[in-house]
Amino acid sequence: MAEAEGPVNRPTGWFEQPVWTAVGLLVVVCGGPVVAVAGVAGFVPDEDRVGVVVTGLVWTLLGVVVLVLAVGGTARDLRVWRELDTAGVRAMGVVTSAERVPCGEDERCTGIRMLVKAPGRPPFTTSHLVPGEEVVEVGSAVPVDVHPTRALVRLAADRSR
Question: How do the domains of the chain map onto residue ranges?
């Protein structure tokens, strides 16, 4: 049986946490160029200059890779969420297993596995984390949004629809 993938909750945007975003961008993206410029501009002793410049260039390359992966991942998550918003079909998933799992420093979640039967698709299984203290019973029905043609599924944000 196929395993579906998809977001559990709306992905965090780049600027929804502006302080951490700014600190991360400064450290990851700007650290390498600052070190390389310090080496080229002569702020380090001559015998260490080559090492400092090479280190700065390596950090710059790593910073660019991290930035590209982060922006690409965020764009993909937002695209997946929009696809489920526009093309998603509401279905009911039957919980086949549920267990309490840690999902943060002091937080606990319920890890659920469920069987989803969506119209026009063969049944498939999926697993999600339900945040908070909500108790999810095995055998209970959970509303989910399913993409009609792709293996994307998410827990329904609005359980009344």
Answer: 14-85, 88-155
